[in-house]
Amino acid sequence: MSARNPSSLCDILGQLVMGVSVANSKPDLYDAVAKHLPLLIPADRVSIALATADDTELEVIALEGLADTLQQGVRLPCNSRTLVGDCWQRQIPQMATISENSPYQDLVVLAKQGLMVAMSAPLITSTRRLGTLNIATTCADLYGESELELLAQVSAMVSATIERLDSIYHSQVTMERHRRYAERLEILNEMGRRLSTAKTEESTFHTVAEAIEHVLEAERVSYVVPNPGGQSCQIFALTGNDVIPKAHSFPLEGSGIAAVLAADRPMAFPDLAAAAYREHAMLVSQGLRMGWSVPIHMNGSTVGILNAATKITWPFPEDALTLLSALGGFMETTLERISAQREVETTLQQMEYRAFHDSLTDLPNRYWLDRTLRSDLQQHSVDHTRLAVLFVDLDGFKEVNDSLSHSIGDRLLCAVAQRLQEQLPADGEIARMGGDEFIVILRNVQSNDDVSDVGQQLLNALAPPFFIQDQPIQVRGSLGMSLFPDHGETPDELLKHADLAMYAAKAGGRNRVQMYSRPMSERLQERIELEQSLQQAIARDELFLMFQPQIEMATGQICALEALVRWRHPERGLLSPGLFIPIAEEIGQIGDITAWVLNRSLQTLAALRSHHPDLYVSVNISAQDLLEPLRLQQHIQSALEQYQLPGTALELELTESVFFQHASTVEGTIDRWRQQGIRLAIDDFGTGFSSLNYLLCLTIDTLKIDRAFVTSIQDNQRTQGVVETIVSLGNTLHMTCVAEGVEETSQLMKLKELGCCKVQGYLLSKPMMADQLLEFLARNSSEGLNSLLAMHSVSSSGKPL
Ligand code: C2E
Ligand code: MG
Ligand code: MG
Hints:
By secondary structure, this protein is of the alpha+beta class. It contains 25 helices and 29 strands. The longest helix is centred in the N-terminal third of the chain and has 53 residues, at 145-197.
């Protein structure tokens, strides 16, 4: 060994320091020390021995140089019988001669390699005696105090580095723990975030299961729900090992699930093989060792069991159970939230459904229609396609509703809704507007004819009678149609125009389809104006009466006068009742008009009665009037009283439909009239409902044979037959028959021949003004029927009556 100069020593020290400081791990460090140390302190052998965990032995963990004895891995006792043990115990650097006689056992062994002197210095950190750094040389006089001192310093440096590595290691371990912790927190955060938006039980389970797989390192996570009846259960959802697959049902008896259900608390199964549960045995067959089960509750009852199983063995299974319980808690709150949310959604859906559907027929309602039409129209204007709105209104529904019952009416509407619905084409939808009005939307319409065809099919569907409570009921419909964009661009316009067309269909004879056209709007405008001015007509004294006499065939004498109302419209001139009475009925004006007619006709009669005491006046009563029988009765009563006339001075003309519609209500009212001596006539007999039952039940005085029969009586044998039948029916039931609309002498003769008692018609007299009556009656009194016929021939020759 040669002496080194200081500068090369500095280099060597630098290398050693460098080798030590770049070491990332203890083995690297020990190797670097063992390798570089002989350059600083000449040595033939360098070793590092570290104390075992129990501090009883020192193990050689790094070795350079002579390595035949005390090789790496050899363990030496930690006591004073070895140099390393002595140094470790006393914690001071030691130098000793190596010989076969040495008191140190390790030196005895080293002597075999020819080594002469050994030095050991302690490796120590602030918390632990780590071991020793040892060198040995074959030169007997190479080491002295300064080498020992240097070894001690290198040892201190190595110790400091070990301490640094330790603290790095510890901080790495700590950091790793924190990293894992943070990772788990991140998994849990992610789970929480996903659970907050989970919408189904399935997705809730999978989110929780994913977290369980990470946190518990679970091989299998399952959610088991009890089947109804409580005898078995089923795997509702599953991740991982599927030895017992999803949807599999198994009996509860003898199962771990049953044990958890019975205990109703989280349970750990640290050794799945130990418990004799059937499904656990299947898991064990797949290498699963530990298991945990947590009952999931909702609103106080157990709805399922969350289970996890691992292949690894957790040192603290109860901790894992706590963790699973916490995750089960997340599942519980999420399931409860989903269930509550579903309830709210269901309620909202029901509310929405109710808001947009008709409660009677369950069809969409007018709000739905408005919303749907709006969006449909937007779409159709983008696509440049056409859309049709069909307005269906039932004919005769009101009669059914009033005459039968509202509950039958309701059932009829439901049946109608169903039939219409069955006729809808693929692109069609139907809504109920209210009452007996239905709207059909047809999308992507190709031609007007297509729309009309669908409309006709809808009406045809109504043709077969409906059977409600085994009762056949016949209703038909009138249908108006409007098209987008041809007839309007907004829902309101289209509906208004389809309504108008429906109106026209009704006016055109009902039970028909009608496409909207512009002139309808103009007619509507006229109609609106008419309605408005009709409301003022009585107050402005624009109504007046004309009277048409009824003549007794046998005597030729006038027995009655039918009061017929007229309206002198300020702009449109004379308007007939056929035009304005239906409007008055619709706008609720008819009651006032009837009251006015009753009053004025009795006033006129009162003036005539002094000369013609048996004369009576016949007044037309609208069906609408009978909806308020008390009011009508009051008007009759007050007019009779005002002009001091008996009931026999008045006849009331009702149409057949009145008896059909108001059968139950009219009965009492008619009784009262009868008691007063008021006559009752059926007007336009033969044109209304064919049910003649009422003729038997009610006491009726007069049948007015409709003009239609009289007109064709001459040419048509069958009509003659009908008239003859009516006359004989009248005779049988003690009713007088009045033939209406007699225009020709031949008709008069025929009626006489058939036994008809009374006649009314242009042949005898057109309706006349009140001031003409007195003279007319006087002439008739003296000259009888011939005078009237003569007058007629005069009037027909062109001279005014
Ligand atoms: P109605 O009660 O059947 O009255 C008979 C109608 O036939 C009257 O028409 C009368 O002018 C007409 N007429 C009578 N003889 C002949 C004839 O020989 N040939 C023809 N072509 N027609 C004849 P008007 O006055 O236009 O009345 C029509 C309908 O209006 C009436 O039919 C009645 O239903 C109703 N009406 C008239 N006045 C009133 C009223 O004050 N109240 C109510 N509610 N309805 C009324
Ligand atoms: Mg009449
Ligand atoms: Mg009539």
